[in-house]
Amino acid sequence: MTTDLLDLESLLTDEERAVRARVRALVDREIRPHIADWFERAHFPRELVPKLAAEGLLGMHITGYGCAGRSSVEYGIAMQELEAGDSGIRTFVSVQGSLAMSAVAKHGSEEQKQAWLPRMAAGEAIGCFGLTEPNAGSDPGAMQTFARRDGDDWVIDGAKRWIGLASIADVAVIWAQTEEGVRGFLVETSTPGFTATPIEPKLSMRASIQCDIALEGVRVPESARLPEARGLRAPFECLNEARFGIAWGALGAGRDALETALAYAGEREVFGRPLAGMQLTQARLAEMALSLQQAQLLALHLGRRKDAGGLRPHEISMGKLASCRTAIDICREARAILGGNGVSLEHSPMRHAANLESVRTYEGTDEVHTLVIGQALTGLAAFRG
Ligand SMILES: Cc1cc2nc3c(=O)[nH]c(=O)nc-3n(C[C@H](O)[C@H](O)[C@H](O)COP(=O)(O)OP(=O)(O)OC[C@H]3O[C@@H](n4cnc5c(N)ncnc54)[C@H](O)[C@@H]3O)c2cc1C
To answer: Which residues form the Acyl-CoA dehydrogenase/oxidase N-terminal domain (predicted)?
Structure first.
């Protein structure tokens, strides 16, 4: 049974459909059979990393340095398929590719690109992206982590919070204040003074890792600084890549929840008739399909604009906000259609809904993206009141 009532498929090229088929097969083979167990055990399946790498999914939108050089739409399609499996697995690919690898690709020196990107694309090295701090999330300008020059070195002190993959990462992109403004550093996680501690227990994103990072007198050479990163604009450019991926990805979770609800309602009998034949159920399913397809159309529009080179930050905010909101509503409705069975891990909607609480929070909360859109409409920034 298809949920693509508008035949959005017809808007895709053959190559885009091929990407979708390959990633969908990977999700069916490698993720679906195990995800409930990983989620229950709060286990990040490291053994998946080489398989995701072999499919060209790590830094797939980056060209050269062993990366796949795929289009924005192909990247988005892949994120949607991965997140139909689980947001935590898509988050791994986003942190590795859109955040850590993008930081190197956009702001790194040639030596840094050669040193890290091929290994990261192959899944041989894992990266993380440390921007958020215990007291600075939506407002990263309030960050307190500080890097001071000491001869030819930099010494970094501070703390980061909620940093994906940090405890298994080989390299951390650390954003810090300096005398010259915000700068980015590639910190090898074996450097003395760097500690990453997983945040546990979590009610969301259980099949992925997020950590507290402590930075205590972490000494790195000048060659570890990202030379092209100046000011907060630098991490924001990386965040925009990840936000674009979320605008597509979250809808994968929504689609999977809708498909689950459709299948369940088709088989479940209530009051002697199939649940799917009840008007109230159809009203729910129709609303879910309508909002899903509207958001999918928006994501595709943004992808085409990104590939054409014209996508602006507030458009990405519109996509991220719309997709997260749509997906979480669909997952909650799907959970309700499954009745009591909806709270069992045997079915995906409530797991997706729990994950999406994180997705709507990271990479800019709903409120932050609402304010970005408000600023684009009015010309007035209302972030400070
Ligand atoms: C699972 C997960 C993974 C993450 N991964 C990473 C990562 O890899 N790297 C990284 O650097 N960070 C990561 N984060 C952190 C994430 O980006 C932050 O949690 C997010 O930016 C929000 O910051 P905060 O938690 O400090 O909340 P706050 O900024 O304290 O916000 C609290 C509330 O205030 C609201 N608010 C904020 N400003 C305004 C305003 N101007 N007007 C009205 N309301 C406002 C927010 O919307 C929110 O509802 C992750 C978070 C999670 C949960």
So the answer is: 13-124
